[in-house]
Amino acid sequence: MEIKETQLCAWHQQSGAKMAEFGGYRMPLWYGTGPIKEHRAVVTAAGLFDTSHMAQILVEGPNAEELLQRSLSKDLSTCIARQHPLEPGRATYGFLLTESGHVIDDAIVMMEGSERYLLVVNAGMGSRVSKHLLHLGEDLDVAVSDLTDRLSKLDLQGPASGKILQKVLQPSPKLKAPFPYFSFVGHYDHLQRGVQSTRGFSVMVSRTGYTGEFGFELFVRPQDFAGLWQQILEAGEEYGLLPCGLGARDSLRTGAMLPLSHQDIGDWPCVNHPWSFALPWKNGTFSKSFIGDQALLSAKSTAPHTMAFLGETGRKVENGAEVLLDGEPIGTVLTCATDMAIDLVDGEVLSLASPDAPEAFSPRGLSCGFIRVKRALDPGSSLVLKDKRREIPVRIVTDIRPHRTARTAWPL
Fold first, then answer.
1. pLDDT, tens digit, for every residue of 172-227?
2. Is 387 within 8 Å of 322 (Cβ atoms)?
3. Section 28-47 average pLDDT
4. Is there a single domain that holds both residue 311 and residue 395?
5. pTM here?
6. DSSP state of 24
7. Which CATH number belongs to the domain containing residue 133 in this structure?
8. What CATH number is attached to the domain comprising 388?
9. pLDDT tens digit sequence for 238-286
10. Same domain, 59 and 198
């Protein structure tokens, strides 16, 4: 398979990035500053990520909502706070499953209008998800378009992101206070309906991200991508903004309790995991029908459990390592990363963002991630993770990095 390059590939290489293939694209793992500083910058200041390897899919037509209700695990009629339906300018998150309840991919669904939705899926998944939706919508009045490489995206993440964006964007009444988490401004093919940067780039602005921290995802035309990237880097210099690679993206999302599709959710029943908010549970069943629903209900009592863990130090094991309970194998490691912004203080997990962190707090980092085990384990349960090189003690937790800022209100 030919490895693709984003519009910034040459910039990444000239900036000293360590490059690797991911999702069919040549992407930066980290830059000269290293993944530890990049991770911490997002928690304390800001980081900028090239995420133009992600794919987008446009679903439009009179039956667009019906198709998504049929295919998506999330119930669009009750997915906004206080059980309100999805509305234009808001987004939600859910799974796309097979009939057997296994994950095809996860997706952010952005409602542009009553008959128009933009889906953001993982790198290399545009064609597969589009074909899946077209098959499910054969009897519906709906069009599905794979927009892979026709729209570019970058992520500006971290507590200083709002201040940086204020320097980059022209004032716009379309970004009214409050601009809540999982809302957006702009349309895919009419970016002029979004906002303009001070250098004339049309930008679709979304209050979403994959780090657990306050920030934005910015969509632009491919020809404007490099220019907007450079403008944001210049605007963010005074705030400590760093360009960040996939290394920091992975450790941040793990500490934020967010799954990686095809690793933490994949070819097994998508049930018994920490992301039940993406399933339409109501009184022990589902509030709507969707592809794979009956398989999930049938599998709930027998399927393995995906659970989060936290280590005592920053030492890691390889993905796929054994999970041992009292010396007996009970499962495997799906993800193991080190969140470099956290540490234990008197037995409590604190973050660089914790208001009660001691003065001069300098975290060593703690290993964390997800395991798939045969049965549910109580929070606090002690386990050992073992690979060919080492064994590390961990415990089951319900959360990892405290005091995350993703939901912080933002008036522009």
1. 877 766 789 999 998 877 665 678 899 999 999 999 999 999 999 999 999 999 99
2. yes
3. 98
4. yes
5. 0.97
6. T
7. 3.30.70.1400
8. 2.40.30.110
9. 999 999 999 999 999 999 999 999 999 999 999 999 999 999 999 999 9
10. no
The amino acid occupying position 25 is Y
Which amino acid type is present at position 214?
F
Please, where are the H alpha helices in 256-346? Answer: 293-299
Q: Are 107 and 208 in contact (CB under 8 A)?
A: no
Do 121 and 137 touch, CB atoms closer than 8 A?
no
* DSSP-based three-state secondary structure for 226: helix
Residues 42 and 159 in one domain: yes
Which of the 8 DSSP states describes residue 354?
A: -
| Widest Cα–Cα separation across the chain | 62
Pairwise CA distance, residues 304 & 330, whole Å: 10
Domain with residue 32: its CATH number is: 3.30.1360.120
Shared-domain flag, residues 157 and 45? yes
> How many domains does one find in the chain?
3
């990686």: which residue's tokens?
260
pLDDT in tens, 77-96: 999 987 899 999 999 999 99
For every residue of 29-71, DSSP letters joined together read: EE-TT-HHHHHHHHHHS-EEEE-TTSEEEEEESTTHHHHHHHH
Q: Which residues neighbour 244 within 8 Å (Cβ) at sequence distance 6 or greater?
A: 30, 31, 38, 39, 41, 42, 47, 48, 49, 157
Residue 412 has pLDDT above 80, yes or no: no
Cα 308 to Cα 297: distance, rounded to the nearest angstrom: 22
Q: What is the DSSP string of 73-112?
A: SS-TTS-BGGGBPP-TTBEEEEEEE-TTSBEEEEEEEEEE
Q: Which of 353, 332, 352, 342 is nearest to 407 (CA)?
A: 353
**CA atoms of 315 and 211, how far apart (whole Å):** 21
Return mean pLDDT, the chain: 95
Q: What is the mean pLDDT of residues 127-141?
A: 97
Query: Prior bond to 411 cis, omega within 30?
Result: no
Q: Are residues 244 and 202 in the same domain?
A: yes
Q: Which residues, other chains included, contact 258 with Cβ-Cβ below 8 Å and sequence gap of 6+?
A: 210, 212
Nearest residue to 179 (alpha-carbon basis) of 144, 206, 145: 206
